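Marked as duplicate of an earlier ticket. Keeping the data here for the record.
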Amino acid sequence: MTSAHPPKATQIADTDLFVFVHIPKTAGSTFKRMLARQFPARRMPKIGPDYQGSVNQIRALSPEGKAQVQCISGHIPYGIHQYFNGRKVHYVSFVRDPVDRALSEYFFLKKQPQLMPLIGLKEDADLSPDAFLDHQAKLGLQDFQTRVLCGYGNLVESILPPYAPMTVENPDSLIRDIERSFALVGTLEQFDESLVLLKQTFGWRSVCYISRNVARPNDRRSQLKQSLAPHIREMNPLDCRLHAHFRDRIAARIAEQGESFTQELQRFHKSNRLYSQGWRIYRATGLRRLGKLIEKLKAATARA
């Protein structure tokens, strides 16, 4: 197998803007924890949790506030950079197989019913899988991943559903435009590989992580996937094409590096296992609580 060196890293300048477009149920919570280690907290404002609220927060920032922002991470669509006066921007996102993403969102809402109002449902709604998919269709949420990544219909002006159907004459051209607009679109199925590519792209020292909000496989989910997959794929043809494209692009970038990438991925897996073990010890011994107490003490002392 041939080997090639990874491409030269792109350094993110202080005046650049890094934007993580977090599509729900694509490992965004896990990624954001890792991302927070790459930028100073004062330059990475907390936004969210809903799309429209996030956009409104960014839009309301003062010119001085916007100048301080170096990284935005949250439920925001492509195009948010238009509020930052022509700064060089680096977009990153993750996509997921539409069937798995739809089922993950369904089970998440069943487990967290207090979040149902965010998609226009009552908290006490008796939500079946079919009712969930019907509700998504009613709101125009088909091909949602594609819609968010291309900013279809100028979502940064109004991102509240219901949405009009997407009219795309050339899906392949649209996906190529998305690829040109993003430094990287990873996939959930190639999460570790995508992180290593991001590490190479931006020269980050560590992309180790602790998995967040990961659901365990179960028979009910497997049965629903088998029965609902054709319907979900029919509802989301652009998302299916989008996911397949970036899955293949990740595989191609890995193949270009050959054995050198395999070795780097193995080193990452070893480092991440050690990182996870250290985090478990940190939590189990109470050091985490001690660290938070020290931070509160520092903040109180600074205000005194």
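See parent ticket for discussion. The first helix runs from residue 28 to 35.
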